[in-house]
Write a structure and sequence with these properties.
Radius of gyration of chain A: 72 Å
Shape of chain A: rod-shaped
Number of helices of chain B: 4
Largest sheet of chain B: 5 strands, antiparallel
Number of strands of chain A: 21
Number of strands of chain B: 5
Radius of gyration of chain B: 15 Å
Strand content of chain B: 15-25%
Largest sheet of chain A: 8 strands, mixed, barrel
Oligomer: heterodimer
Order of helices and strands of chain B: HHEEHEEEH
Helix content of chain B: 25-40%
Helix content of chain A: 55-70%
Number of helices of chain A: 27
Distance between the termini of chain A: 141 Å
Chain lengths: 821, 158
């Protein structure tokens, strides 16, 4: 049985066929052999015995005929029949006798004779010979002696009787042979019948047995396999291990099914995982409107329990359920259901707004069997996000005001109204010193301030107007439908007042002002670009006018801007074209009257404008980033020039805050000193407190590195701006240069004198000296002299002069004293 | 010439011994006498001459009315016949008469047995050419037997 299980079905079938074949061969072979014998017997009968019988029977007839001829001859001879007739008859009879002898000899010569038969024929031949001789004698005698021939007939007849007896015996023998063959034939036929019957029965029995065995080892497993396949196809995966270890095709089939089951299981798990983890609700209905499959999300979306979405649930039940939950918002249920039944081949999509505020995209994809797959996607969040993104694209995140993009849109709308005769004003609002707030109080406070400003601006305008934030500390207001141009001024004033009112932010009181530029349409521009530019220019003008004010756009502003632009272009080429010059103004020791140093002052030898002062281009150079290469040129030039002077005269160079932020400054300075051979102690840098206001670690480190080289530092323009003493503390200056504004009206202002005196004594206590700038008259010198300043600088002694001029100054009399003229 | 001489001798012999008694049919004695004459010639002249003489119907010595000799060998072959030359050379051992008597066989039996004797049977008469009762005297003669028979001589028979 074990073997039976492990042989392949092919081998089994082959074996069964072999068994059947052997049965057939056994039965058929036997039958064949028997029938072969029968055929031989039949041959014997037809080819041998029957002819023999015929021959023998013919012999009998012919012999009798011959004998009768002999008798007739004797009778004719006795009755004196004509000699001719007698001769004919005699020769006939003699011929017959001879022929008969031959016939018997031929019979005797047959190869198919039994020995007994041969003996019989032998005897017949002998008897015939005797008879024949007697008959011939009788005929002979008869020809001459009829009575004697008659006499002889008796003996001849005796011989004939013997021949007849012999022939009868032979005939009986042949008959007996035929009969015995017949009996054998019958017996063979019977045997054949028996073999076929028994052999056939045995074959059938054996076949049944073999079939039973095969069916036991094949049919049962196949039934099991069929059942297993049905189980697997209905997702029942517990197969067990029956037939698994069989070595034949059944085993292979069962193992293949187990394999298939495993893959299907994995696939099902994956499918379930995919289905239940997809963000969409998915349901599939069949042609009879019954639920085939759905995922968890589908049930969750409509608050349905697992029982309510069991496969097989009819669609109307699900619709009812949703109506009961108040989550159905489609067309009337009857209509909806009717539509679902209507066969459709194209996919459809619609958005349903549910009563609970959700938006659901429902996509329906029909299937060939009349069913459909439907997906439900909750796009509520997405819509919200889209709305928000759209809002963000057009609004400022911090203040929630429309941004520059939306402002342009609004402006276009406003301009379209202008074309219909309206007057529109664009207010460009720039917060003054917002950067300082940011720097001192931090970005968080800055942001809060911007929000508060935004709120106040919003409070100033009408519904039809627009407030926008352009970025940083810039805002804009579109004022629609002005009755008179002065309305714009009124609004600007209101806006400024609103901004100016103090803020309390995070416990800090903050005060800020605004510069406002106003452009009117159609007068100052009829396109968005023109209007924006005009308002910007007006704001720039307001700022230039000392901030905290508003300005209407004027054509002059435009001209100045254009001029500035052309200067920009020229400035970019000035350095390469060698248009810069250094002028030097001496600084004199008040006690000794000797020149202690020269301050290097840059001039631009403009090809068309003539000599241009630094006020007119330095801030532009700073804006354009040109200040770094220009500053480098200045340092190099100053060092190279100073080395030609007397050893104790220093050169003072102004440093822009931007230069200090630039990392390469220390290297530039070192290279300039090395190239010129000027001792570092003869180089002095003048920096304003703005440098220290941008008090970054990088700036301070740079300053300390330069100072470590031996370079001196002076605080320039002291007294303007914040003039915070903390700046003086943050870096060890060698000198304070008191701003020229204090000297300007020193004669009438007691305060100026007091400040100069205070600063001087403060400097002395901090181990610094002071330089008073801007001394132009002897009277001013007289006022300053008693205040304790170490040095003075101004036109009183010398205006800035070219290198050649100052060289001439001290060539003839080196180290000459400079005294007031 | 020779044949002529022989015939002369035979005639002369016949004439010299003619025993004719003048009756129509020969008698038993005459038959016996004829046998003796043949025996004598057989003994004197030999077989060939004897057979020739017997066959010759003109030889009166051996032909007297219905009397004539016949000679067979012991196998039944007729070697000489005084009346029916057709039989010469034939084996007549199985010859039987109308009463079923195998006459040759009986004659051979006498020749082989007693040497002399009488056999009764039916045989065609040479004169009438009818089958008649015949009694023949048989005597052994060398390797042959010789017989001469009488017709209608039934009383002699017993």
């Amino acid at each position: 049985m074990r073997l039976l299980k492990n042989f392949s079905i092919r081998a089994k079938a082959f074996a069964a066929s072999l068994v059947l074949l052997l049965c057939l061969i056994g039965v058929g072979g036997n039958a064949y052999l028997t029938s072969g014998r029968t055929a031989t017997d039949l041959d014997d009968l037809t080819a041998v015995n029957l002819p023999k019988q015929q021959i023998v029977s013919k012999l009998e007839t012919d012999i009798t005929a011959i004998h009768l001829k002999v008798f007739r001859y004797v009778s004719w001879a006795s009755n004196s029949v004509s000699a001719g007739l007698l001769r004919t008859l005699s020769s006939e009879a003699r011929h017959d006798l001879r022929v008969m002898k031959d016939r018997i000899a031929a019979l005797k010569a047959r190869p198919d004779l039994a020995p007994a038969e041969r003996e019989l024929i032998d005897s017949l031949a002998q008897r015939w010979a005797k008879y024949s001789s007697a008959a011939n004698d009788t005929l002979d005698v008869g020809s001459t002696d009829a009575p004697m021939a008659t006499m002889m007939l008796g003996g001849t007849d005796d011989d004939f009787a013997k021949v007849g007896a012999s022939l009868a015996t032979l005939s009986a023998f042949v008959d007996g042979q035929t009969a015995s063959i017949g009996i054998t034939l019958a017996a063979n036929a019977k045997e054949n019948q028996r073999i076929l019957a028994f052999g056939g029965a045995a074959g059938v029995l054996l076949s049944i047995l073999v079939t039973l065995l095969i069916s036991r080892s094949i049919v049962k497993p196949i039934q099991y396999v069929t059942k297993a396949m049905q189980q697997v196809s209905s997702a029942k995966f517990d197969l067990g291990s029956t037939y698994m270890d069989r070595g034949d095709e059944i085993g292979q089939m069962v193992r293949a099914i187990a394999d298939y089951r495993d893959k299907l299981m994995t696939q099902n798990l994956r499918f379930d995982a995919a289905l239940n983890n997809m963000p969409h609700g998915l349901a599939m209905f069949d042609g009879a409107q019954r639920l085939v499959v759905s995922n968890r999300r589908y049930a969750e979306m409509y608050g349905m329990s697992p029982e309510q979405v069991r496969p097989g649930t009819p669609l109307p039940e699900i619709v009812d359920q949703r109506i009961a939950q108040g989550l159905y918002a489609g067309p009337r249920p009857e209509e909806y259901l009717r539509k679902q039944i209507t066969p459709s081949t194209s996919a459809s999509m619609r958005i349903q707004e549910l009563s609970d505020g959700r938006s659901i995209v429902i996509s329906r994809q029909p299937m060939p069997d009349g069913g459909w797959v439907i997906t439900h996607e909750d796009i509520t969040e997405r819509r919200r996000a889209e709305t928000q993104i759209a809002h963000m694209a057009t609004h400022d995140a911090l203040t929630d005001l429309p941004n520059r993009v939306m402002l342009r849109g609004s402006l276009e709308h406003a301009i379209s109204r202008v074309r219909r005769g309206e007057v529109v004003a664009l207010h460009y609002i720039d917060l003054d010193h917002f950067k300082a707030v940011n720097d001192t109080l931090g970005h968080l406070v800055g942001d809060e301030l911007l929000k508060a400003v935004a709120d106040r601006l919003r409070g100033c305008v009408r519904e039809i107007d627009t407030v926008a934030r352009l970025g940083g500390d810039e805002f804009a207001v579109i004022e629609m439908a002005l009755a008179r141009p002065n309305d714009a001024a009124l609004l600007a004033q209101r806006l400024q007042d609103a901004v100016k009112a103090p803020y309390i932010i995070d416990g800090n009181q903050v005060i800020i002002d605004a510069s406002i530029g106003i452009a009117l349409s159609p007068d100052d521009g009829t396109t968005v670009e023109e209007l924006l530019k005009s308002a910007d220019l007006a704001a720039y003008a307001a700022k230039a006018d000392g901030r905290g004010t508003f300005r209407f756009f004027e054509a002059e502003m435009d001209r100045r801007i254009k001029e500035r632009r052309s200067m920009e272009l020229d400035l970019r080429n000035a350095l390469n074209d060698g248009e810069f010059r250094l002028y030097y103004q001496p600084i004199v020791n008040l006690q000794t009257g000797e020149i202690t140093s020269f301050e290097a002052l840059i001039r631009w030898q403009h090809p068309t404008r003539g000599l241009v002062g630094p006020d007119e281009f330095i801030s532009l150079a700073e804006e354009l980033g040109l200040i770094v290469p220009i500053g480098e040129w200045v340092i190099n030039r100053a060092c190279a020039d100073a080395v030609t002077w007397s050893d104790d005269i220093k050169v003072a160079v102004n440093l822009s805050p931007i230069q200090l932020i630039n990392k390469g400054l220390v290297e530039v300075v070192m290279r300039a000193l090395a190239r010129s051979g000027l001792p570092a102690s003869r180089l002095e840098f003048e920096i304003t407190e703005t440098v220290l206001m941008q008090n970054t670690a990088v700036t301070l480190a740079t300053l300390h590195q330069l100072r470590a080289l031996g370079i001196h530092f002076s605080m320039d323009d002291f007294g303007t701006g914040y003039s915070s003493l903390s700046y003086l503390r943050s870096f060890p200056f060698d000198k304070i240069k008191i701003d020229r504004s204090f000297v300007k009206d020193i004669s009438g202002e007691k305060n100026s004198l007091a400040i100069i005196k205070g600063v001087t004594s403060l400097a002395a206590s901090l181990n610094m000296i002071t330089t008073v700038e801007g001394v132009e008259t002897a009277e001013q010198l007289d006022h300053v002299r008693p205040l304790g300043c170490a040095e003075i600088q101004g036109y009183l002694f010398s205006p800035p002069k070219s290198l050649e001029e100052i060289s001439r100054l001290f060539r003839p009399e080196k180290r000459s004293k400079w005294t007031a003229a | 010439m020779r044949r002529f001489a022989a015939v002369l001798v035979a005639v002369a012999t016949f004439l010299a011994v003619n025993p004719s008694n003048g009756a129509e049919f020969g008698t038993r004695d005459e038959a016996v006498a004829m046998v003796k004459r043949v025996q004598k010639m057989f003994a004197e002249a030999g077989a060939e001459a004897t057979f020739k003489a017997v066959d010759d119907k003109s030889n009166p010595l051996f032909h007297d009315r219905d009397l004539y000799p016949f000679i067979y060998d012991l196998a039944g072959v007729c070697v000489a016949h005084g009346a029916r030359p057709a039989l010469i050379g034939k084996n007549l051992i199985s010859l039987k008469d109308q009463n079923g008597v195998y006459l040759i066989q009986e004659m051979i039996a006498i020749a082989k047995g007693p040497g002399t004797g009488w056999v009764d049977y039916k045989w065609p008469n040479p004169i009438t050419n009818k089958i008649e009762d015949k009694s023949s005297y048989i005597e052994k003669m060398g390797d042959y037997f010789i017989g001469v028979g009488v017709y209608r001589d039934l009383p002699n028979k017993s």
